[in-house]
Every structure is written in C-alpha cells, then in structure tokens.
Amino acid sequence: MRKLSICAALFSLALCGVLNAEEAMSMNAADKAMYAEMSENNPAAMDVAEGEELFNSLIGQEAYAKVLGVSVKELPEMIAGFPRMLTATPKYDFTFPKTMRKVVTLSQSLQMALASRDKKVFKLKDKEMNKMTAYVKSLANDLKTNIDVKANKQMEEMVVLGQKIFEERRGGRGLSCNSCHSADIVGSRLRMQELPDLGSKATASASTWHAYRMTQSAMVSFDKRMQQCMKNALLAELPLGSKEMVALEVYVTNLGKGNTIQIPGLKR
Ligand code: HEC
C-alpha cells in the first residue's frame, strides 16, 4: 500500500513534469480557450467603433480623401499602401504644412487631416489617435497591403534606412531586430515565445496591427508594438513618428507586403 502511494506520488510528479513542459512550450489550454473566445468577439472592436465615431465627427471620409488627393472610392486602396509619401494636390488646392511633405504613417496622415480642418491635432500616443487610426485602417480590411517602396526617392531612402535600423545592433545586449527576427532564427523560441517571421502570411505582421494584445488587455498600434520589442530587448526606444520609426515601419511593412489587412488583429 505504502509502496503504491509512493509510486503514485512519483508518477504524478513525473506526469506533472511532462505537462508543465508541454504547457511551457506554447500557449496553455486556458490561453487557447481565451484566444478562441476572443477571436469570436475581439475586445478591440469597441475601440475601432469609437475610432469611427471620432473620425466621422472630426474629419469624415470626404475631407480625408481630399487630403490624400483621391476620391472616397479610392480610399481603401490608398490606405492599404501606408506608410507613403504625401504630396500637395493642386487639384484640391490644399495647403500642406511643408514639413509634412515626406513619408508618413497612417496616423500622421490623420494628423494632417485634423490640422487641415482646424481641429485639435492629437499626439501619436493619444488613445484617440490609436482608435481613429485603427478604424481608418479597417476601411482597407480584406485588401492586401500594397506599400510601394519604389514609388519615389523618399520611399527608396526610407526602406534602406529602415533595413539599416532593423539590422543595427544596439543597446546593452548588442541585439538588433534581426537577432530575433532573421530568416534563419524565426520559429525557434525565446523564453517560451516563438520568434515570429514578420513577413510571413502566418504572422501577417503589419496587416494585423492595430491588434488587441491579450497580455496587455489593450489595443496596440504597430509602431507601439515595435517599441515594446525594443523595450524588451533593451534597445533605446525610437520615438513614435520619428524618421527612424517611420523608416522601420516602412521596412517591416514591406516584408509583409501582400498580406491581407485584418483590423483589429488579436495577439498574445
Ligand atoms: C530578443 C528577441 C527580440 C528582439 C531583439 C526583437 N524582437 Fe520582435 N518579437 C520577439 C518575440 C519573441 C515576439 C513574439 C512575442 C509574442 O508572441 O508575444 C516578437 C514580436 C514582434 C512583432 C509582432 C509580430 C506579430 O505578431 O505581428 C513585431 C512587429 C516585432 N516583434 C518587431 C520587432 C522589431 C522592429 C525589433 C527591433 C527594433 C524587434 N522586434 C526586436 C522577439 C524579439
């Protein structure tokens, strides 16, 4: 009897060990259940809906299309191609702030639209901006990202700069983005998390952010997500909206060019 219970104890310990190892390898069962539940009912859908209200009351599709120099019908295709260079369009006789004649992110294009309507220009980190950009990007849902890094000299420069930043070793541990996201290392694991291939269809990185991050219980933008990687890897965080950050977004978006836009995404 005694022998048996010891055996049972040993057995369950051993089993326990196996289970823990299995569990530790990826999302555990509870996480998986939560993921399934949340993909049915993404909590960030609320944020996107709030973004829609904000956008419609402050800008509206017509005014936004004018800022971009396209028709309302052309908006989704246009949105699917950010970051992109925006130029003044004489057709609409719009006066752009000179400093904005450069490669901009979708959020920055909304800042331009707000300025053109004499509205308060939210900061990139503001939650209003986060929600509005998510909504506007969702107008391109089901389209493929169509960033064009050859479109002009500015885009060509930005993709080169972005690649340089992606590969540059920085910070206390001398890591670069490429240390964890290069082709020869993706799929292996770091502290139990699979290293994602940012360009793959499976990760669909640029095209699935803004996403609800379960680990943060909040909707996070793509540039913010990249900042979070910088923080984890002890790289100095590039400021949102800086030339370097936009360049990085150009480069990483181009890695996943052609992936289908699905906003809001759902991520660990
Ligand atoms: C120390 C390793 C490491 C470094 C360095 C690193 N990352 Fe990551 N990154 C990860 C891991 C691990 C994940 C997935 C985490 C998870 O599952 O939540 C990830 C996720 C991401 C994602 C989200 C992918 C998705 O699901 O769409 C992006 C974007 C990203 N990283 C960009 C970057 C950029 C840009 C840099 C450089 C500034 C960088 N990472 C540096 C390890 C790293």
SSE pattern: HHHHHEEHHHHEEEEHHE
**CATH architecture assignment of the largest domain:** Orthogonal Bundle
How many strands, what sense, and barrel or not for the largest sheet? 3 strands, mixed
Question: How would you describe the shape?
Answer: globular
Distinctive features:
268 residues; mainly alpha; Cytochrome Bc1 Complex, Chain D, domain 2; 2 domains; 11 helices; binds heme C
What is the strand and helix layout of this fold?
Layout: H1 2-25, H2 29-40, H3 44-58, H4 61-68, H5 75-79, E1 84-85, E2 103-104, H6 106-116, H7 127-138, H8 153-167, H9 177-181, E3 189-190, E4 193-194, E5 211-213, E6 218-220, H10 222-232, H11 243-255, E7 265-267
Parallel strand pairs: 5-7
Antiparallel strand pairs: 1-2, 3-4, 5-6
Helix pairs in contact: 3-7, 4-6, 6-7, 8-11
Bound molecules: heme C.
Heme C binds at residues 175, 177, 179-181, 190, 193, 195-196, 198, 203, 205, 208, 225-226, 229-230, 233, 235, 248, 252, 267-268.
If you had to describe this structure to a student in words, what would you say it looks like?
The chain has 268 residues and is mainly alpha-helical. The protein has two domains: 95 residues, no CATH class; 111 residues, Cytochrome c-like domain (Cytochrome Bc1 Complex, Chain D, domain 2, Orthogonal Bundle). 49% of the residues lie in helices and 6% in strands. A three-stranded mixed sheet has the order 6-5-7. Strands 1-2 form a two-stranded antiparallel ribbon. Strands 3-4 form a two-stranded antiparallel ribbon. Strand 5 and strand 6 form a beta hairpin. Helix 3 packs across helix 7, helix 4 packs across helix 6 and helix 8 crosses helix 11. The longest helix has 24 residues. The protein is globular and about 45 Å long. The protein starts with a helix and ends with a strand. The N terminus is likely disordered. The structure holds heme C. Heme C binds next to helix 9, helix 10 and helix 11. Heme C (HEC) binds next to helix 9, helix 10 and helix 11.
